[in-house]
Design a protein that fits this description.
Elements lengths: L6 E10 L8 E11 L4 E5 L6 H9 L6 E6 L2 E2 L7 E4 L11 H11 L4 H14 L15 H14 L4 E5 L7 H18 L2 E6 L2 H7 L2 E5 L6 E6 L12 H26 L1
Parallel strand pairs: 3-8, 3-9, 6-7, 7-8
Antiparallel strand pairs: 1-2, 1-4, 4-5, 9-10
Helix pairs in contact: 2-3, 2-4, 3-4
Length: about 260
């Protein structure tokens, strides 16, 4: 019988080899966790702790040095359309319109025109960009570009959506709007989302489970489950404020440890 968890990290280590052993980089060490189907799983930790490495392992772009990464109970050995990644950079095709960017993966799958158009219409409505379907990326704001990137990823109906600080470069107002948009899309599509962020507030706003990593090499310091409905009130909900303090304390400890090692 297959494990019910969508993604499993089983005692994962990842070493990036340098010119010699002294220059090897240990990115992850003895990391184990699981992500359930239809869960929003957030990863947070200091810079360089291996957050993006985790996404690349799940995407199948790289392989672990030790341990196994499983998708639906089977080892991940290569990239697959069921696991789609969105980066902080928008990576839209500048010569394609909004609609054609969204339909790009569908064209690759050789879907008929009418079927592609039905899917892109649904997604344009979901991201509230029906009026901008014929515009090109240079005519869009940063937040609009990221909405298009999200719709393009959703068009191929991935089981797992990997998001690497997708809202990190945006202003606070746009970021808040996209966080709510992502939650609305998740409710409508029920995809499994694995979301990397540096923001504790963003982690608490979005995460049903939050993995807190140590500084390099990345090891689990905590895994916080939040059983609170969306949207969440970070100002008045004492339970959420307690979670924020809990994560902040860990990250402050990691920063102090890093500075101590650097100065010694």
């Amino acid at each position: 019988m297959k494990n019910k968890s969508k993604i499993i990290f089983n005692d994962i280590s990842k070493i990036f080899n340098g010119i010699n052993r002294n220059s090897d980089v240990i990115a992850l060490k003895n990391l184990s966790f699981s992500v359930e189907a239809n869960e929003i799983f957030v990863i947070i930790g200091p810079s360089g702790c291996g957050k993006t490495t985790i996404l690349n392992l799940i995407a199948g772009f790289i392989k672990p040095t030790g341990g196994a990464v499983l998708f639906d109970g089977e080892p991940i050995t290569k990239p697959g359309k069921e696991r789609t990644i969105i980066f902080q950079e928008y990576a839209l095709f500048p010569w394609y319109s909004v609609r054609n960017n969204i339909e790009f993966g569908l064209i690759s799958k050789k879907l008929p025109f009418k079927e592609r158009r039905l899917i892109s219409n649904e997604l344009l409505q979901l991201i509230k960009m029906e009026k901008f379907a014929d515009l090109f990326p240079y005519q869009l704001s940063g937040g609009m570009k990221q909405r298009v990137a999200l719709a393009r990823a959703l068009a191929v109906e991935p089981d797992v959506l990997l998001m690497d600080e997708p809202f990190g470069s945006l202003d606070a107002q746009t970021r808040g709007f996209l966080q709510l948009s992502l939650l609305n899309i998740w409710k409508a599509r029920k995809a499994t989302i694995i979301f990397v962020t540096h923001s504790i507030d963003e982690a608490i706003i979005l995460g049903q489970k939050i993995l807190v990593l140590s500084s390099q090499p990345g090891e689990q310091r905590d895994c916080v489950e939040i059983n609170k409905p969306f949207p969440r009130d970070l100002v008045r909900d004492q339970g959420l404020l307690d979670v924020k303090q809990r994560i902040s304390k860990i990250l402050d400890e990691e920063l102090n440890n890093y500075l101590k090692k650097t100065l010694d």
